[in-house]
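chain below, 244 aa
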Amino acid sequence: MTVALVLAREASQSIPRKNLLAFHGRPLVAYPIMAAVEAGLETLLLSDGDELLRVGKRFGAAPGALPPELCDETGTIHRTLDYAIESLGLVDETIVALMGNSPTVSAETIRQALCAYESGAFTGVLTVAPVEDTHPLRLWERDGGRVYPFLDDVPREAINRQSCVGCVRHDGGPLVFSADYDAGETVYPFLGPRVGCVVRDQFGLDVHTPADLAVATYWLWLHHRELLPDEFVAPDFYLVNPAT
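prediction:
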């Protein structure tokens, strides 16, 4: 059996009550729930917020209450999924984890990720987007007014941007894995040691800023205009081909 677990905590550091934010006539959290339900999956919303759980139920997700300690700024996706797997008694189910703040998810995307996982070639699958500029020396960590190189060891040889072509980023879409996983050594250990991917366009993302909402709106216009209100009028620049 395949189970979709939608993660949506009540608090948010970026946009207050982000997962309940009205986005084109629906709460933000409704979009991944609707995608999972349309894909035919048993869907649960994992949250510490009563209002969120009620909203989830309205859109087809069974409620799964989370303890507060998993929903503060120290909580991680890994710990939350481990708690859900154990508390729900999931053993050999296939898990599709979805972010409550990711409106750029469709039933088709979920099916593609499941198809890749069910091929048997991977222990876990995630969706990714291409990254135009992935030069590692452009990344700096900030501590107050000072910055430090992101790389611990700066390479002696030159690194050209062209040598980084082919890098991708997780775009906030589905994470598919087994409830009985063997941990891998990545930021998502539940995906196991052999991680596969489904490549999408560069506009898929989970929402953290108002600018992200604008990108998510463009993604809906590109892929699922039926989810936009009838009165929505696309700006002229939407008609520009993003590939040009």
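The mean pLDDT is 88. The two ends are 43 Å apart (CA to CA).
thats it, cya
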